[in-house]
Amino acid sequence: MSKLVIFGANGATGHAIVEQALHAGHHVRAVVRNPDTFRRVPEELQPALEIVKGDVLDHDDVHAAIRGQDAVISAIGPSGTHSGGLYSRSARHFVTAMAAENVARIVVLSSSGVRRGDPHHPLWYRALARTVMRELYGDMETMENILERSELSWTAVRPSRIIDEPVSGGYRIGDNENPEGGTTINRSDLARFVLQAATEDTWSRRRPTLAH
Could you tell me what percent of the chain has a pLDDT over 90? Predict the structure, then answer.
């Protein structure tokens, strides 16, 4: 059993990771801006869940949330197509806080769109990544680069378009490239992979890209 702190725990993907982590027997510290809005988990899972108030853009909040944990998972995301520095600013807090607390393992959610020229993306998507989504993907790329320059054992998980369907287990994983022809990934499959990556070293300091 591991102690996992999950940022962005009240988002769709973050909450899916929380539930899968609890079902797997881990202790979860869920970091949310407003604990009153946190979606409930089944009663039998609640003893292993700790809900704490925190802002990923506040260094003191990040530092306090990481203290005593075995690994960090970041499932943060903006509400629209612009991040406003959310990814890069949070990454800087993670690096310094984790070094201070001697926590080495972190898994962050990025996107397959970060590699804008990936030949396995359709042309329309490559165009979108370079225009409408340029700021968002650029901030994710900066986040990844900040982690890469650190001493942390990091993994930047790059999902393709996330859809809500039951666990399939039939997804493919590309190493820093989108699986050929893949355009979507089930949220439940993504959550399971993120949890696995956080508790193993297979994908340490790499950029796995997921698609069906």
Answer: 85
The Cα–Cα gap between 74 and 109 comes to: 6
Q: The domain 3-211 is classified under which CATH number: 3.40.50.720, 3.40.720.10, 2.130.10.10, 3.90.25.10?
A: 3.40.50.720
Distance, in Å, from the CA atom of 66 to the CA atom of 172, rounded to the nearest integer, reads 31
Q: What does DSSP say about strands 208-211 and 71-74: parallel, antiparallel, or unpaired?
A: unpaired
* pLDDT tens by residue, 160-181: 999 998 777 789 999 999 999 8
Domain ranges of the chain: 3-211
The C-alpha atoms of residue 212 and residue 210 are separated, in whole angstroms, by 7
User: How many Cα atoms occupy the beta-carbon half-sphere of 153 within 13 Å?
Assistant: 15
Alpha-helix residue ranges (DSSP H) falling in the chain: 12-23, 59-66, 86-101, 123-130, 134-149, 187-199
Torsion over CA: 154, 141, 212, 25 (sign): positive
Strands 49-53 and 208-211: unpaired
Residue 94 has pLDDT above 80, yes or no: yes
Residue range 19-31, pLDDT digits in tens: 999 999 999 999 9
